[in-house]
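Researcher: Here's the sequence for the chain we discussed earlier.
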Amino acid sequence: MYSLLLAVIYLIFISLGLPDSLLGSGWPTMQVAFGVPSSYAGYVSMAISFMTIISALISPRMIRKIHTKWIVIASIMLTVMGLIGFSFSRSYAMLFLFVVPYGLGAGAIDASVNHYVANHYSSSIMNFLHCFYGVGAVISPCIMAQALKAARWNEGYRWTAYIQMGILLVCVLSLPLWKQNEAAAEEKNRDSAGIRETLKVPGVVLTLVAFFAYCSGEATCFLWTPSYFAGTRDGLSDETIASFGSLIFGGLMLGRLISGFISNRLGDRRLIRIGITIELIGILLVILPAKSYVIAAIGFVVIGAGMGPVYPAIQHMAPANFGKKYSAAVIGLQMASAYVGSTFMPMVFGHLQQHIGIGIMPSYLLLFALINIGLLERAYIVLKKQNR
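Model: Thanks. This is the structure I predict for it:
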């Protein structure tokens, strides 16, 4: 039963990753079809992320009242609606009709399942969980590339929706498996703190801003990596450019897979430090003035590998750093903070690259990597003083 439930949870995170890389992979072609500037991808991404912020902020209350399994079922249904809606969109404006279910579904899954795993499973399981998110995020650019080759970008969204429907069916069939932790989870959730009370806990705000910085860099990579190659390398086909959307996700998956084997031994904090160091090395590879796209492609994989353990480690530390009473609210706030970064910073980058050039992307990523590690180190100092 334990192994079966864990397999379902991993599958849920594959479903979470599937929609996230479609926009970045399909946008160079979608932009032409809709007749809009390249920076307009940022507005769609911002709208999706805005809905996830709302979903994340209400997640602590949802977790207290609704079991995780029902949140997951409802959320996957919402993402299916969003994907189908995107696939039938015939104009840029139509996309905004479907960002509501698209974003609400993703945010609810992310916050609820992360809270469930942080409280019931080890750091190793958390890293493997987010590795499977990377599996989903790597698959969807390949789906989009195949759709561009065989049909149109619309089919990329539609085919992904069909996969989500299959995952939804598995989740419905697996409902009895959740009973093993149900009573204990409900007892813990009833005693959890609210958002206002949690914001007053020392160190919480620092981790929120650090998480904002991390997700600002991550989301910029998600959205703009294919466009970076389109703008800095000549002679690449649309299918090849679309497939570059999987570079960062492949790196994330690799980083989280490796972290899953070593995280229990190294601990979350050391894993974050190692990860950000690797991320910085990847940024330097992208900066190198090589004519071939291969070095830059390797650089983005290395960036993803470095980023890999950071997200799950910050999430997994929440109960240990702030106590189980505050963990649901902390994780909900972290998700909201993450999606604020995902909402605004890819859009900000979109405007910057339109006026300065997309070649500034490595410098943009470097800034957020340094903010992320700096604020996390400061939070550790605050927590150490608090626990004396």
